[in-house]
Amino acid sequence: MIYLKTEEEIGYLRQANQLVSATLAEIAKIVKPGVSTLEMDTLAEQFIRDHGAVPTFKGFPEGMPGAKPFPASICASVNGVVVHGIPDDCPLQDGDIVSIDCGTFLNGFCGDSAYTFCVGEVAEETKTLLRTTKESLYKAIDTALPGRRLGDIGHAVQRHCEAQGYGIVREFVGHGIGREMHEEPSVPNYGRPGTGKQLKNGLCIAIEPMVTLGSPELALLPDLWGVTTRDGRPAAHFEHTIAIHNGKAEILSTFEEIERIEGQRY
Q: Is the pTM of this model over 0.90?
């Protein structure tokens, strides 16, 4: 069942997503070689709770069969880890990339956004992967208009990234969002134009391209949460939550502060 959101509900979703974005911006301030993803997780949880919300990911039960509930407030996926990396105390190294996926629950509604950060001096081919993946996210958002279809969103990501020779992860997709973090519909990063469910005003979805520098084939880590590329090459992940609202796609999260911080550093 797909639930279209009212004006009031979109307002609550906007607040939850703005908090996610502010949390990611706080993390952006400390991304550098020598910092651990566990430090990032501690910062994120404290920031979220200080703002009257709950970190949605902590205790999340929907892992692979046999997995324990997710133990952290953010997913921190380093280099070839695509999604759902569990934060640890290993210091990040110069040249790493780290995708931070964050969720909040505020006033009964969920926020969800992700950003892939450079740690120190990163290889140019990896930076190009990140830039292309982020571009594909905005191209997908541009297609999210009333009357279009889910296949149009996925096709926008797929076309842009595959034209550069990158791999599209198919096993993990975007999703509807509202009172629950994962609602219908699923939002793949691939597809054929004009196919899938029709987009309507009030639809709120998280669009999240997951793109690999090499093969898109995946492997599950022993913790039954983290998912890595089989060839070990880097993967990028960017995510915005949007509302189809008043005839256009409104981005409820934002990268503006993150990009301002990054611009000062690099």
A: yes
